[in-house]
Amino acid sequence: MPPLRIDILTTFPEMFGPAAAGPLAQSIPDRARRAGLVQWHAHNIRDHAANKHDKTDDRPFGGGPGMVMLCQPLWDAVRAVEGQDSRFATRVLLTPQGRPLSQAVVESLAVKPRLLLIAGHYEGVDERVIEALEPMEISVGDYVLSGGELAAMVLMDAVIRLLPGALGHEASAAMDSFSPIGPGCARVLDHPHYTRPREWMGRSVPEVLISGDHGEVERWRLAQRLARTRARRPDLLR
Ligand code: 9D3
Questions:
Q1: What is the number of the ligand 1 atom nearest to the C-alpha of 123?
Q2: Which of 89, 95, 98, 165 sits at a 20 to 30 Å CA gap from 126?
Q3: How many structural domains comprise the chain?
Q4: What is the reported pTM?
């Protein structure tokens, strides 16, 4: 299988660093990249600006704060970058107006051959280029970021760890039936975890976990998961 190719279009490509040394060059995404499961490239939208001052944005028609991403540089950047590879690219615009990112969305993206992520530091993108590009529009949650770049990295991390071979054997086996989130999995939070020492600053590990009774342990963990979900995330239980 050829690597998943991810292109990011942004006016701050430096935020992604070199693939081998940027913020995603750690842990699981770095191992996946080194194993040839994924490659990513950050491109500067500014390089495609056809105007005098390499402008990528302008003031909004109708007035108001902030700047609006111009149609032309983004459109030309998408066409140029998509032309670097013959495979179809799934276009994703990171925007506060997008569909909330979920594990189901992440799973749907992890099976694509190519992703084109559009992120920016601007008040918005000219609606006409969104209509022309027809990207999926995705938000990473109901809070305000300074731009879409960190949202793109969140999406990348979530997608990359799902690529076959990205997780160690142990971790991927654990995914199947015990992952607390995602379709096909129980919509419940995880149970608490403990390791050595048995007592720390006067706090003991729950007795059941050192009893050696695996059936009791599983029943206790399930009860903990349900109780925590009821208390912290009742929305997950519908
Ligand atoms: C006053 C209107 N604001 C929209 C909520 C303006 C605005 C704020 C922040 C416009 C863009 C941004 C930059 N954020 C993103 O590009 C972004 C984002 C986010 O802020 N939160 C969650 N997910 C995402 S995905 C992209």
A1: 10
A2: 89
A3: 2
A4: 0.95
